[in-house]
């Protein structure tokens, strides 16, 4: 492995039950070296690889149980407690609400289950997310107890295998789970679906998304530079939670598309890598709106192109209304975008085409002689949510190709 | 008033340690798996390793496996475990 991933590799191997795995380390990066340079690195590393490969098997030893005492030996002002949490790497850099036992108890009272109930295992550290540990992080994030069932459902959703959380937590990609809330709970808890929906200003959105990030950091060990290897990250890694603006949508709700009833309250988690605003001035008809969206989607450099997955469009009500008024269904919109954003393979060098063919093998099995690739493997893989308020905008959110959106009932 | 502040860090899941793997299966020619994570240049790196393994009268057999996606486990892990005495897992970026 390359040197920058050594700590991550050892930690994950230990968490998966192989603490004594042997590693040979070469300088990072490998991917940018020329052919002869790769051979030279390999030649130099070979003796060490063989030494590690053939060495007698080391004795397995049990990990010493780390200290996770429930109560910390702390007293002091909120500022002092904040300093202590920050110094231990338990925050997102912003001040937290100190998780006092009484506040955690109030959070737990909003769900009628044993606090020791295990909701999931959070990689790469493979930390056990009990209801109590999730509640501690939700208090730290500033959640109201009413929000807690949404946080719990979100944790459950990111632990589903198809979400693929382990590599998501460790990748150099900026991906982060975004939470989309649907159903009656949106109004009841005043979760923002309108103005500045992807931004600041709403306690529910801000703290629910933040609670999930703190769970990923503190239970999962996703500390930047250590086990979270994101090259840049993105602002959404602080918090990213929206509701669908279903009242302003001409289409069926996002969760209904996923098989739930309109009156079910659900969370969906989707691994997004960023936001790109799409503004369109000549918004006179559906074709013009869709052309603007199609032309705004990049032709190279985002993960969906290389790995498939489920790219997301957050369409604002004004643009959705134009599309709906002309009788376009959500499926029609997806199909037009799918067809319109296909990219000629001649744009890529042969090595990249080979990489894409390996990762998106379904496309190349169906059509081995294909000359272009779409942004998703199937029309239905393109995800569409209506959110935002007045204004002539939509947002394209590429997703990390190696993950699938998960929707669960709250 | 004493305040009890709770620790936000979860306990680690206690994983069953894998069964001890019998080292080289006493074959005439030990089999070494080369697992490529499909990142750029990894194939080239392993090709050079393989060339060293098979060169100069060394008595090894090699098996090459490419992960279709770097972000996830290899679907051929059982095959590698069954077929190989040793596996070199290249996880470079």
Quick tags:
heterodimer, A: 410 residues, alpha+beta, four-stranded mixed β-sheet, 13 strands, 37% helix, flat, B: 93 residues, alpha/beta, three-stranded parallel β-sheet, 2 helices, 4 strands, elongated
Fold and architecture overview:
The complex is a heterodimer of chains A (410) and B (93). Chain A is α+β, with helices and mostly antiparallel strands and 410 residues long. Chain A has helices at 6-15, 35-54, 78-87, 101-108, 131-141, 148-158, 165-170, 185-188, 203-218, 254-257, 286-296, 303-307, 317-325, 330-340, 350-359, 361-366, and strands at residues 71-72, 118-122, 127-130, 176-182, 241-243, 266-272, 276-279, 312-315, 343-344, 372-373, 383-386, 393-397, 406-409. In chain A, the strands form four sheets. A four-stranded mixed beta sheet of chain A has the order 5-4-6-13. In chain A, strands 7-12-8-11 form a four-stranded mixed beta sheet. The model of chain A has no long low-confidence stretch (mean pLDDT 93). Chain B is an alpha/beta fold and 93 residues long. Helices cover 22% and strands 20% of the residues of chain B. The longest helix of chain B has 13 residues, at 42-54. The N and C termini of chain B lie far apart (53 Å).
Instruction: Give average pLDDT of chain B, whole number.
Output: 83
Rounded Rg of chain B: 20 Å
Oligomer: heterodimer
| N-to-C CA distance of chain A | 41 Å
- Basic shape of chain A: flat
Main beta-sheet annotation of chain A: 4 strands, mixed
Shape of chain B: elongated
Strand arrangement within the widest β-sheet of chain A reads 5-4-6-13
Show the largest interface: A-B, 77 and 43 residues
Count of distinct strands of chain B: 4
- Classify the beta-strand content of chain B into a percent band: 15-25%
Give the SSE order of chain A as H and E letters: HHEHHEEHHHEHHEHEEHHEHHEHHEEEE
Low-confidence runs of at least 5 consecutive residues of chain A: none
Distance linking N and C termini of chain B: 53 Å
Mean pLDDT value of chain A: 93
What structural category arises from helix and sheet content of chain B?
alpha/beta
Structural class of chain A: alpha+beta
Compute the number of structural domains of chain A: 3
């Amino acid at each position: 492995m390359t040197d920058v991933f050594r700590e991550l590799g050892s930690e994950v191997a230990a968490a998966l039950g192989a603490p004594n795995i042997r590693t040979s380390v070469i300088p990072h990066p490998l991917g940018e070296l020329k052919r002869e340079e790769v051979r030279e690195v390999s030649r130099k590393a070979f003796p060490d690889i063989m030494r590690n490969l053939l060495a007698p098997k080391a004795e397995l030893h049990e990990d010493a149980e780390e200290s996770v005492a429930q109560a910390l030996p702390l007293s002091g002002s909120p500022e002092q407690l904040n300093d202590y949490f920050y110094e231990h790497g338990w925050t997102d850099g912003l001040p937290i609400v100190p998780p006092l036992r009484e506040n955690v108890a109030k959070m737990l009272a909003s769900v009628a289950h044993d606090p020791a109930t295990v909701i999931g295992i959070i990689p790469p550290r493979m930390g056990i997310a009990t209801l109590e540990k999730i509640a501690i992080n939700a208090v730290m994030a500033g959640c109201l107890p009413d929000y807690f069932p949404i946080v719990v459902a979100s944790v459950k959703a990111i632990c589903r295998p198809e979400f693929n959380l382990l590599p998501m937590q460790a990748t150099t990609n900026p991906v982060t789970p975004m939470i989309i809330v649907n159903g009656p709970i949106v109004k009841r808890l005043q979760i923002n679906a309108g103005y500045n929906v992807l931004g600041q200003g709403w306690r529910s959105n801000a703290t629910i998304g933040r609670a999930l990030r703190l769970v990923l950091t503190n239970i999962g060990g996703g500390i930047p530079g250590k086990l979270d290897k994101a090259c840049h990250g993105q602002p959404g890694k602080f918090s990213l939670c929206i509701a669908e603006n279903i009242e302003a949508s001409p289409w069926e709700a996002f969760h209904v598309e996923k098989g739930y009833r309109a009156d079910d309250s659900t969370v969906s988690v989707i691994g997004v890598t960023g936001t790109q605003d799409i503004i369109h001035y000549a918004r006179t008809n559906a074709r013009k709106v869709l052309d603007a969206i199609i032309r705004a989607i990049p032709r190279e450099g985002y993960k969906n192109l290389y790995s498939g997955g489920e790219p997301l469009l957050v369409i604002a009500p004004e643009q959705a209304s134009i599309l709906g008024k002309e009788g376009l269904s959500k499926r029609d919109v997806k199909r037009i975008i799918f067809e319109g954003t296909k990219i000629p393979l001649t744009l890529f060098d042969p090595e990249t085409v080979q990489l894409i063919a390996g990762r998106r093998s379904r496309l190349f099995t169906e059509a081995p002689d294909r000359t272009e690739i779409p942004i998703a493997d199937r029309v239905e893989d393109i995800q569409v949510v209506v959110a935002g308020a007045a204004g002539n905008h939509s947002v394209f959110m590429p997703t990390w190709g190696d993950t699938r959106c998960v929707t669960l009932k709250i | 008033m004493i305040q009890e502040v709770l620790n936000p860090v979860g306990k680690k899941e206690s994983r069953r340690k894998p069964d001890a793997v019998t080292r080289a299966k006493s074959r005439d020619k030990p089999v070494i798996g080369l697992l490529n994570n499909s990142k750029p240049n990894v194939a080239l790196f392993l090709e050079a390793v393989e060339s060293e393994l098979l060169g100069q009268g060394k008595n090894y057999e090699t098996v090459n496996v490419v992960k279709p996606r770097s972000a996830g486990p290899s679907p051929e892990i059982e095959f590698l475990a069954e077929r190989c005495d040793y596996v070199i897992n290249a996880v470079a970026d």
